[in-house]
Amino acid sequence: MHVYGYELEVPGPLYRLSSEHPTSTWAAHPLGRRWVVRCTGPSEEVARIAPEADRIRGSEPPVATACFLYAPRRGERSVLAEVVGAGASLVPPLVWSDGRLAIRFVVPDGRPPASWHVRHPGARLVMKRAIAPRDVFDLVGGTADWLSALTPRQAEVLLRAVDSGYYEVPRRVPVGPIARRLGIARSTAEEHLRAAESTLVRGVAPLVAARHGTGGALPGEADLEYYARFSAELDLHVQMALRDEEITRIRLSRGPPERGQARDHPYLRRILRHVTTGTDDLNDLPVALEVAPFARRVLEEVRRIPSGTTRTYGEIAIRLGEPRAARAVGNAVAANPVPLVIPCHRVVPASGGVGQYSAEGGPRTKRRLLEREQAARRVLGRRASH
Predict the structure, then answer these.
(1) Shared-domain flag, residues 128 and 152
(2) Catalytic residue flag (residue 39)
(3) pTM above 0.70?
(4) Looking at 287, 344, 348, 376, which residue is catalytic?
(5) Span 116-133, pLDDT tens digits
C-alpha cells in the first residue's frame, strides 16, 4: 500500500476563499453530504472572514480559528468521489491554502486512480510513501484536529472529572475532590475544565448542526436558493430549496414563505403540474437527501411507488428485507424532507384510510394528492384501452 499526496486547483468557494485569504488555511473533514471546515489564520484576517471566530492564544501573531458546516459544491465533491470510486481511501482533512487543494489518499496497489492524471493534468505530486496495512486505520481515521487544542493538563483534569462522575446526572462529585486528587487548587481545576469544555463544544458543534439540519454555508456564501408558488389544488404554498441544482427541501405552508416568494423554477413548475394533473412521477428530479442510511433506503423505495397506487408501511419494510421495521419505516416517511417529489403520501396504514401526513394540511392534503393521482390513473387506463 502507498499513500499519495497531491496539490491541485479545484474551482469552488473554498478555492476562492483561500485565494482571497492566502495566510489562512481551510481544512475540510467530509461528513456525509456536508463537510466540517476549520479556517485557521492570523486573528485579524479570520476576524474579517468570520467576526465570531474562536481565538486561540499562542504564537505571534495570535492565531484564530473558525469552524463551519459546509455544503460542498459539485466540483469539490467530484474530486472526493473520484478517489473513493477508484477504491482509494481518503486521508482527511482536505486542506486548501492560497488557492491550492492538498489531498492525500491511500491506494492498495501502489498506483493512483487510473484517471487521476487525465482529469487533473495540473496536479503536482508532493508525497509518495509505502505504508503498512496495520497503519491504514490510524491514518485514514485521523483525529479531530480540534482535540490538539487541548493541553495535557486540560485533558488530565477532564478525564479525571469524567471518571469521578462529575458529568453524570445528578452529579456524583464536585470539582473540589477532583482538584485535591490531582494536587491542584480548586480554581485551577475549574479553569482547566472550562477551557477543555469550551474546546470540545466548539469542536462538536458542527457535528450537532449536521445531525439536526442546521448550518451549511461558509462566510459570505449563499447556501440554498429558494423558490415558492401557490398551489390552488392544495390551497397551500409550495416552497422548494435548491443547492447545486439539487432539491434539498420541499415545504408546504398556509401563508406565503419568507424566502423564495413568487420565484419560479422549472422543477417547481413540474411539481405543481403533477399536483394539478396527478401525472408525471418526478423520478428524474435530482434530490440531495441528508438522512441516515436506513431512512435513505426507505425514501428510495417510496420513490419507486407509481402514481395512482399505494403501499403500506409493512409492505415497504418487507421490500427492504426488514419485515419487523414497519414502525421505523413510518418514522423515516414522516421525516421525508422532500414531500411531493418523494411521494410519501402514497404510503398508507394497513388498517385502512389514508393515515397521517407530516406536511401542512395533514390527512386532508394527503387525500387530495391521492385522489388526483388515482383519478389520473383511471383516465389514462381508459385511454390506453381504446
Answers:
(1) no
(2) no
(3) no
(4) 344
(5) 877 888 889 998 888 776
